[in-house]
């Protein structure tokens, strides 16, 4: 034991003797050697044993990025240097602006966030911005906002993210509008920022000096079924525009026209939603901007929920396809679902007294009387009655009542005529007492979104001059106000809905001439 200690003492004394007068302490001496790149392997090894940061830096630079040894030395450095912590964070959780990492495990995410936080504690601002982007991509807007605000130096890049966060959280109050406006000077210094400024203007995210633009006067509806579409985030505004472009390839597009997509603060679209349930919204919230909307209908893209149409309002999930969108548009135009509606749906509670849709009739399934008279009576109850050929049966005999000499007829077109327009059982009222009927035998997009929308249904729209359109969105506002006991104000909006309907009918005489 004494021999070993003696040898260590001799080695240490030898090192001390070699020190210059300006570098008496060993760590300082080794750091100087490492910094001037004037060291040998023994000195580097000894510096590493002394946990000198410079030694770890050199050892890290000698490793393959991502290797076990690289991780070892980077982890050592990350305790002291923000840049190393940032590199380690990027290894576990690579974050690039406007992209989301793919195939990341929860463990990788946790480690990544931990090292981003460590880099931030060590005053690494690139790490601050990177983690802010991560939180933004995960819709953790408050956390993203806190990190952006903590930056000591605001840059065009940080202003882009700040603007996006403000827009996503909802530009509604004077403070929020000012916050967004304050980003404009820095946004103008980058190409991405300039594109964002154009988007802010195009989607009317900030009030415009142009009164005509604010009040929607630049858009004049060119069809009876006009729609103003809204979205609550930049990503959804872009998606909405793409959805409308894709919809142009659908058969229903000839009957619908869209006003340019606009922004609506998520704070003003007060909806409760779950992925599998239809959106339920407080539609009185549209009262404040209703006078700025020139269209009959309003559509909204929201983060998640079940797509549906409620009178003059269409709601859609950001993940919904063009086919889902077309299905909902068909409801605005007067088509009813051909899949089973909820139990005791209003339209399925009793036999109809008048036609109410383009494709569904709720009628009795048995009739007594002469076939010609019964047929004539039923055809009047079918919106598509005039499209049924004289040679296409809609009744078949059940039996003969010998005592009264009258026939009992069951409603329904025989299978032999499945390729004709007729009267075929629909699943619409399967959950209710009554039976629903439809014009065609085959399944359509009103049953399954991925099915075709029949040409004959488009023909019905032309022939009927959009007779079964849903009421204007003003009616939604009126109903919402009525449910909130705002009776006098509700009456005002019922009148506005009626006035819009009158004007629309007057204009419709000209517009539908092109169908």
Please provide a brief summary of the model.
This protein is α/β, with parallel strands linked by helices. Helices cover 45% and strands 12% of the residues. The chain has helices spanning 2-18, 26-35, 41-49, 53-61, 68-78, 82-92, 106-121, 125-137, 141-150, 156-169, 174-182, 184-187, 191-202, 211-214, 234-247, 322-332, 371-380, 455-464, 473-483, 487-511; strands spanning 225-231, 256-263, 271-274, 277-281, 297-302, 308-310, 313-317, 361-363, 366-368, 395-401, 406-411, 424-426, 435-438.
Which terms would index this structure?
single chain, 515 residues, alpha/beta, Rossmann fold, five-stranded mixed sheet, three-stranded antiparallel sheet, 13 strands, elongated, disordered C terminus
Q: Biggest β-sheet: count, sense, barrel?
A: 5 strands, mixed
User: Which regions contain 5 or more consecutive residues with pLDDT less than 50?
Assistant: 1-24, 510-515
Give the terminus-to-terminus CA distance.
105 Å
Number of helices: 20
3D structure, described in words:
By secondary structure, the chain is of the alpha/beta class. It contains 20 helices and 13 strands. The protein has a five-stranded mixed sheet with strand order 2-1-5-7-6, covered by helices on one side. The longest helix has 25 residues, at 487-511. Mean pLDDT is 86; it is low at 1-24 and 510-515.
């Amino acid at each position: 034991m004494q021999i070993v200690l003696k040898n260590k003492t001799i080695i240490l004394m030898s090192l001390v003797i070699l020190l210059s007068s300006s570098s008496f302490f060993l760590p300082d001496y080794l750091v100087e050697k490492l910094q001037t790149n004037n060291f040998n392997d023994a000195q580097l090894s000894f510096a590493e044993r002394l946990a000198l940061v410079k030694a770890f830096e050199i050892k890290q630079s000698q490793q393959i990025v991502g290797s076990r040894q690289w991780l070892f030395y980077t982890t050592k450095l990350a305790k002291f240097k923000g840049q190393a912590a940032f590199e380690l964070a990027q290894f576990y959780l690579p974050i690039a602006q406007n992209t989301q990492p793919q195939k990341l495990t929860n463990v990788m995410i946790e480690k990544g966030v931990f090292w981003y936080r460590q880099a931030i504690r060590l005053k690494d601002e690139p790490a601050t911005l990177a983690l802010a982007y991560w939180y933004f991509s995960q819709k953790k807007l408050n956390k993203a906002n806190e990190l952006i605000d903590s930056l000591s130096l605001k840059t065009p890049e940080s202003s882009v993210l700040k603007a996006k966060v403000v827009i996503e959280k909802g530009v509604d109050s004077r403070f929020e509008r000012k916050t967004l406006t304050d980003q404009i000077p820095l946004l103008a210094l980058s190409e991405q920022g300039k594109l964002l400024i154009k988007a802010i203007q195009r989607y009317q995210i900030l009030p415009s000096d142009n009164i005509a633009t604010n009040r929607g006067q630049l858009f004049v509806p060119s069809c009876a079924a006009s729609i103003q579409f809204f979205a609550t985030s930049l990503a959804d505004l872009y998606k909405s525009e793409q959805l409308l472009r894709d919809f142009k390839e659908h058969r229903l597009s000839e009957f619908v026209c869209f006003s340019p997509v606009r922004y609506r603060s998520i704070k003003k679209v007060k909806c409760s939603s779950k992925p599998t349930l239809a959106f339920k919204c407080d539609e009185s919230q549209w009262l404040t901007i209703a006078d700025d909307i020139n269209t009959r209908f309003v559509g909204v893209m929201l983060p998640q929920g079940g797509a549906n149409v409620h009178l003059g309002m269409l709601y859609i999930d950001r993940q919904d396809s063009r086919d889902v969108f077309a299905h909902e548009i068909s409801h605005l135009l007067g088509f009813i679902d051909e899949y089973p509606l909820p139990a005791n749906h209003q339209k399925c509670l009793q036999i109809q007294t008048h036609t109410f849709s383009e494709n569904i009739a709720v009628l009795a399934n048995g009739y007594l009387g002469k076939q010609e008279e019964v047929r004539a009576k039923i055809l009047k109850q079918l919106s598509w009655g005039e499209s049924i050929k004289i040679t296409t049966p809609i009744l078949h005999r059940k039996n003969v009542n010998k005592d009264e000499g009258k026939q009992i007829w069951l409603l329904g077109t025989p299978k032999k005529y499945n390729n004709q327009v007729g009267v075929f059982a629909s699943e619409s009222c399967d959950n209710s007492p009554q039976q629903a009927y439809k014009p065609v035998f085959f399944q359509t997009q009103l049953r399954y979104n991925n099915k075709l929308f029949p040409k004959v249904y488009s023909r019905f729209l032309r022939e009927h001059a959009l007779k079964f359109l849903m009421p204007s969105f003003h009616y939604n506002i009126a109903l919402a106000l009525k449910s909130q006991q705002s009776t006098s104000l509700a009456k005002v909006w019922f009148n506005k809905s009626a006035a819009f309907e009158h004007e629309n009918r007057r204009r419709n005489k000209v517009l539908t001439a092109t169908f």
